[in-house]
């Protein structure tokens, strides 16, 4: 009964949790959809407002330029022309004001005109009315200045007329005075005492004329002085600057539009879609370029290596390290095995990696040999041939060498006679059977000028000289084959080759397989007649594993390969 109740409780609890989860997902989806719709609508309205702002500013600039051109043409116009233009501006202003009044009504909205377009039409009319009003004010100022200029000119002309009149009266008075004085000098008695004589009457007439001209001269001088005072009252007008409407007032007309735009910007900034999309859109072009580069750069490098460098290297002469050495090498028993027996007698000693020593005779003496070859400490350390087990026996004893920690590896014993040399990388080496007191000799050979060395990134080669027995490991077995007229093999499987052979690289034959990573770019090629090369049956599967650890391991292997390790 308890079990049944527990089952029923779990059933209802499981479905209740599912129901709550479904509700939460639906609410989250509704909220996300609402946020997305708000972001899209605000984004569209912001773009529309920005376009409208630019359009109105552009139209206002064009209208201002046209107004400036009209005013510039009227800068030297007459009063009648200025008056006609002011009247025309007043009529156009009244017409625009009527249109603006109609635009303020709800009629266009009821007819289906968008609200934004309706607002923009009103703002454009406001800008046009403002520019017309500014033009009218400037034309009025221009007309007042022209009237003041004409008034000043008329005052100066009147002053000149009065000056000439005053000068004329004064000249006439001086002439009358000279004539009377001349008459009095020629007839002094008659002019003073000769009453009734012609000279006396003429002197009287000249005296009366002189008095009249003196009175006229005084009146003319008074008129001239009064007009001079009026002319002196004229003040010079400051220079009138060119007509340029204040754009700040036009910006004030656009303030509601820009305030709405700023409000939408704030709304979009508070939207989480906007916060995510804005930086994403900024970095997206760079990210796409990086992605494109990451996709095309390996392809370009592979194309360069396959179609340019590899054929060029194939035409270069092969590398021959020790052409005078013997091309002799043999694999004990003709094949490799999971474990191999190694016999150590009184004249030899065995150096073997402790991990590969499966069983040992109790008759022998074992100690530690820290380095495979003291001349190459770094090479011994990097290849793992350090802290080796050194075994010596006073009588023949058998020791079993096996890859105890790798199920894919098999052990092979390479018989290297005296005078022969084997070029190999020590990382395949697990042990050496050598004569006591005569350790296996290792020589180093650099080939910095060889294109084969640079393509394979192996600039240094290590040669092991006989007599010695080299114990090597290989995945699924080890094979030794004669080079004959020429043989090629995958680089991943190569263990070593006789130093008298010519070593070169050849391009793999299928570009698609190389592009897909199914085949390596280069195969090792051996030629030169008498000589052998050694390879493992198949590359170790661990070399094809991925992941960051494998990338780091591959980088380390590449660095070690440069030094022939």
List the helices and strands and how they pair.
Layout: H1 2-73, H2 79-103, H3 107-110, H4 115-186, H5 188-192, H6 198-232, H7 247-253, H8 255-270, H9 272-314, E1 330-331, E2 339-344, E3 348-352, E4 357-359, E5 365-371, H10 377-383, E6 386-392, E7 397-402, E8 409-416, E9 421-424, E10 429-435, E11 441-446, H11 451-456, E12 460-465, E13 468-475, E14 478-484, E15 487-490, E16 494-498, E17 502-507, H12 511-515, E18 522-527, E19 529-536, H13 548-562
Antiparallel strand pairs: 1-8, 2-7, 3-6, 3-10, 4-7, 5-6, 8-13, 9-12, 9-16, 10-13, 11-12, 14-19, 15-18, 16-19, 17-18
Helix pairs in contact: 1-4, 1-8, 2-4, 4-6
Describe the fold and architecture:
The protein has 565 residues and is α+β, with helices and mostly antiparallel strands. The protein is built from 13 helices and 19 strands. It has helices spanning 2-73, 79-103, 107-110, 115-186, 188-192, 198-232, 247-253, 255-270, 272-314, 377-383, 451-456, 511-515, 548-562; strands at residues 330-331, 339-344, 348-352, 357-359, 365-371, 386-392, 397-402, 409-416, 421-424, 429-435, 441-446, 460-465, 468-475, 478-484, 487-490, 494-498, 502-507, 522-527, 529-536. A 7-stranded antiparallel beta sheet has the order 1-8-13-10-3-6-5. Helix 1 packs parallel to helix 4, helix 1 (2-73) packs antiparallel against helix 8 and helix 2 (79-103) runs antiparallel to helix 4. Residues 107-113 and 544-555 have low confidence and may be disordered.
């Amino acid at each position: 009964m308890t079990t049944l109740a527990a089952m029923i409780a779990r059933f209802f609890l499981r479905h209740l949790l599912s129901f709550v989860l479904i509700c939460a997902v639906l609410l989250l989806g509704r909220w996300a959809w609402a946020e997305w719709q708000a972001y899209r609508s605000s984004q569209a309205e912001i773009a529309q407002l920005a376009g409208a702002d630019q359009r109105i500013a552009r139209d206002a600039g064009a209208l201002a330029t046209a107004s400036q051109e009209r005013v510039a043409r009227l800068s030297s116009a007459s009063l009648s022309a200025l008056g006609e233009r002011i009247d025309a501006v007043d009529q156009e202003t009244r017409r625009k004001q009527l249109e603006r009044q109609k635009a303020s009504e709800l009629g266009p909205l009821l007819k289906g005109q968008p609200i934004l377009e309706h607002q923009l039409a009103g703002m454009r009319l406001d800008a046009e009315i403002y520019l017309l009003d500014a033009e009218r004010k400037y034309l009025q100022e221009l007309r007042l200045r022209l009237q003041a200029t004409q008034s000043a000119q008329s005052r100066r002309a009147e002053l000149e007329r009065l000056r000439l009149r005053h000068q004329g009266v004064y000249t006439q008075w001086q002439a009358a005075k000279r004539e009377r004085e001349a008459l009095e000098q020629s007839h002094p008695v008659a002019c003073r005492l000769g009453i009734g004589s012609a000279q006396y009457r003429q002197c009287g007439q000249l005296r009366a004329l002189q008095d009249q001209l003196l009175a006229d001269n005084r009146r003319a001088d008074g008129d001239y002085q009064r007009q001079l005072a009026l002319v002196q009252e004229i003040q010079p007008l400051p220079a009138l600057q060119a007509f340029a409407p204040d754009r700040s007032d036009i910006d004030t007309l656009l303030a509601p539009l820009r305030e709405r735009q700023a409000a939408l910007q704030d709304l979009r900034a508070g939207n989480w879609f906007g916060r995510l999309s804005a930086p994403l859109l900024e970095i997206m072009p760079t990210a796409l370029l990086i992605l494109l580069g990451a996709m095309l750069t390996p392809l370009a490098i592979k194309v360069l290596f396959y179609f340019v460098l590899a054929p060029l290297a194939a035409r270069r002469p092969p590398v021959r390290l020790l052409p005078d050495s013997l091309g002799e090498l043999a694999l004990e028993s003709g094949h490799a095995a999971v474990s191999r027996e190694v016999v150590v007698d009184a004249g030899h000693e065995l150096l073997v990696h402790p991990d590969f020593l499966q069983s040992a005779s109790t008759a022998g003496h074992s100690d530690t040999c820290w380095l495979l070859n003291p001349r190459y400490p770094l090479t011994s350390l990097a290849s793992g041939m350090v802290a080796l087990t050194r075994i010596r026996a006073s009588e023949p004893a058998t020791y079993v060498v096996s890859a105890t920690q790798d199920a894919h590896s098999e052990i092979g014993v390479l018989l290297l006679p005296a005078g022969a040399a084997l070029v190999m990388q020590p990382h395949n080496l697990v042990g050496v059977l050598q004569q006591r007191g005569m350790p296996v000799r290792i020589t180093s050979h650099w080939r910095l000028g060889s294109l084969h060395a640079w393509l394979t990134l192996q600039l240094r080669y290590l040669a092991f000289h006989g007599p010695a027995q080299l114990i090597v490991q290989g995945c699924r077995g080890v094979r030794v084959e004669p080079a004959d007229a020429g043989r090629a093999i995958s680089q991943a499987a190569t263990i070593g080759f006789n130093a008298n052979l010519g070593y070169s690289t050849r391009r793999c034959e299928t570009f698609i397989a190389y592009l897909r990573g199914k085949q390596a770019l280069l195969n090792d090629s051996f030629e030169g007649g008498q000589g052998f090369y050694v390879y493992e049956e198949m590359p170790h599967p661990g070399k094809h594993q991925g992941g960051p650890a494998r990338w780091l391991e591959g980088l380390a292997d590449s660095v070690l390969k440069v030094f022939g390790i």
